[in-house]
């Protein structure tokens, strides 16, 4: 039995080749090209000096984008946890649960641009006059509205597999709803939470068009909008192409840093659990 499994194991490795091929063509190769474009000499004679373009203004836009993405992610988490918890533990009818899920995921079916325009029209109607949306708060609301399903669905699917007895036992032991959530529900959904943060924070950080439509102030653009503007100019200017590539590399570095942090936290958690198990059995 062992020799048979060992004999066929190498053949199973071929299953990963299609994914590796797609990753090399559509992920690794474009990243290498973008990096090369960011350091290649331009008509002005600069090479690594293209990165000097990332001055105080650009750094300010990067930190502003991170701030907007952070608050949008926090809002999405605050909205997703009660919705998912209520749907799993308090809605017993499968048809009602399906209907609520359908209503929550409906925004993902609509065009991105149509959603933003519709949301801006709603804000203008509430404020009472057109072009009334000034401030980053509208960008945060827009990003929260767009990416809410990407946080709620992982949490819902995880809570759906959670034994309800855990919650009942916690309450039988004297814990109220708040401490039951902190000690039972939250640790059980940590993996889904990390996945949701990745699906919300990273796209929000590099989002385009949302500030242009929802934030009417002159300083409302984020780093994604600047990359898009430089990318449009890159069709006729190699200097703009180098600048857009440099900004893209900065975004890639920040995204890669998040994945390092995410996997680092998972490794540390496993180490701690292993040490506790070894020490206390």
Question: If you had to describe this structure to a student in words, what would you say it looks like?
Answer:
The longest helix has 43 residues, at 238-280. It is built from 12 helices and no strands. It has 281 residues and is mainly α. It is globular, with a radius of gyration of 24 Å. The model has no long low-confidence stretch (mean pLDDT 81). The protein has helices spanning 2-12, 17-39, 56-89, 94-105, 112-127, 136-160, 164-172, 177-188, 190-205, 210-214, 223-233, 238-280. 77% of the residues lie in helices and 0% in strands. The chain starts with a helix and ends with a helix.
Task: Give keywords.
single chain, globular, 281 residues
The gyration radius over C-alpha positions equals: 24 Å
Order of helices and strands: HHHHHHHHHHHH
The helix tally amounts to: 12
Global geometry? globular
Condensed summary:
With 281 residues, the protein is an all-alpha fold. The protein contains 12 helices and no strands.
